[in-house]
Amino acid sequence: MGESQRLQGVQPEVLTLEEVAAFLRTTEQAVLDLLAEEGIPARKIGGEWRFLKQGIKEWLSELGEKPTPPRPGTREALHQAYGMFKDEPDFEEHFADLRRRRRIEGGT
């Protein structure tokens, strides 16, 4: 029995870019973007990307554990960055003043 016949019907543990895109139900370009932006686990072998199926599953499950960071400059971002001061009664006033000063000093 040849190698390809023996492996038919067996889910491979090492996936190609095309297979990962199908597994994630997205495009190959979206997977490449995830490589660059989100750190999806992969290795380049012989000029082609390879992915461990278990690594992709773990990466997906970790995504649910990480909260989405707030957009920079929003009240939520300020509260996250300066959490120990968020309960100060004049917190918003102080940061509004800082933003005004930045605009004046920065020329914007």
Describe the fold and architecture:
With 108 residues, the chain is mostly helical. The chain has two domains: 63 residues, Multidrug-efflux Transporter Regulator, Chain: A, Domain 2, CATH 1.10.1660; 32 residues, no CATH class. It has six helices and three strands; from the N terminus they run αβααββααα. The protein has a three-stranded antiparallel sheet. β2 and β3 form a beta hairpin.
CATH architecture of the largest domain: Orthogonal Bundle
Domains (count): 2
Helix content: 40-55%
Sheet with the most strands? 3 strands, antiparallel
Number of helices: 6
| Major sheet strand order | 1-3-2
Taking Cα atoms only, what radius of gyration do you get, to the nearest Å? 23 Å
Look up the CATH topology of the largest domain.
Multidrug-efflux Transporter Regulator, Chain: A, Domain 2
Shape assignment: elongated
Low-confidence stretches: none
Concise structural overview:
With 108 residues, the protein is mainly alpha-helical. It has 6 helices and 3 strands, in the order H-E-H-H-E-E-H-H-H. It is 55% helix and 10% strand.
